[in-house]
Design goal:
The protein is of the alpha+beta class. The protein has one domain: Alpha-Beta Complex (Peptide Deformylase). About 7% of the residues have low confidence. Nickel (II) ion (NI) binds next to helix 2.
Length: 204
C-alpha cells in the first residue's frame, strides 16, 4: 500500500465529472487500498478518487463504529433519495484546515457496487449522510465551497487556504496537520470534552 499525494483546491481534476468505473480490476483494488490508507494518514473520514488525481467514480468512507462496521468502498455510487435537512461543520482534505457550516440533507439513500461487484444500498443519516453526499459531490466536480451560502466567508477564507496549499506543496508545512497527543488523550479521558470533540469538523 502507499500514501497517495492529495489534489488540492485549484486542481482541475477536482472540478470535472469523474468517469464511471467499467471494470473492477486489480488496478481498482490497489487504488482502493491506497486510498483507504491515505485517508487514515491524512485524518479524513472520506476520500474520492479525484482527490488523488484519478477521475473515476469511486469513494472510500469510514465514519467509525457509530455509523458503520467496516470501511465502505463504493464503486459508481449514486444518491437514490434524500430527506430532511441538517446544518453542521464540514471540511475537506483538498481544502486544508478550512471548516465551515454546510447545509445537507439529514438522510440519504445511496446505492453502489462493492469491490466484488455486488450491489449495496446504504441508508445513511447524520454525519454518514453528510460524508457520503460530500464524496459523491466530488465525483460530480463539486466542492463543498459551492454549498456555502456565506460569500463573505469564502472571500475571506479562500485566499488563506490557498496560501496554506502553496506552503504544503512547497514543503514549508506538512500535509498532515500536527496534533498535540496530550490534548488528544485528554479529550478521550474527559466525557464532556469527548462530547464536544464529536461536534468538531472532520475533513472528508
Ligand atoms: Ni472532500
Amino acid at each position: 500500500m502507499a500514501i497517495l499525494d492529495l489534489k488540492y483546491y485549484g486542481a482541475q481534476v477536482l472540478t470535472r465529472a469523474a468517469k464511471p468505473v467499467k471494470h473492477i480490476d486489480r488496478e481498482l483494488i490497489k487504488l482502493a487500498q491506497d486510498m483507504l490508507e491515505s485517508m487514515y494518514h491524512y485524518h479524513g473520514v472520506g476520500l474520492a478518487a479525484p482527490q488523488v488525481g484519478v477521475s473515476k467514480r469511486f469513494i472510500v468512507v469510514d465514519c467509525g463504529d457509530e455509523f458503520q462496521e467496516a470501511p465502505y468502498f463504493l464503486v459508481n455510487p449514486e444518491v437514490v433519495s434524500t430527506e430532511g435537512v441538517q446544518y453542521g461543520p464540514e471540511g475537506c482534505l483538498s481544502l486544508p484546515e478550512f471548516f465551515t457550516d454546510v447545509e445537507r440533507p439529514a438522510r440519504a439513500v445511496v446505492k453502489a457496487l462493492d469491490l466484488r461487484g455486488a450491489p449495496i444500498t446504504i441508508n445513511a443519516e447524520g454525519f454518514l449522510a453528510r460524508a457520503l453526499l460530500h464524496e459523491i459531490d466530488h465525483l460530480n466536480g463539486v466542492l463543498f465551497t459551492e454549498r456555502v451560502e456565506d460569500e463573505q466567508l469564502l472571500v475571506r477564507e479562500i485566499p488563506v487556504m490557498k496560501e496554506r496549499i502553496r506552503m504544503i506543496l512547497s514543503g514549508e508545512i506538512p500535509a498532515v496537520p500536527e496534533y498535540d497527543e496530550d490534548e488528544v488523550l485528554h479529550l478521550e479521558e474527559t466525557a464532556d470534552m469527548a462530547e464536544a470533540a464529536k461536534d468538531e469538523a472532520v475533513p472528508v
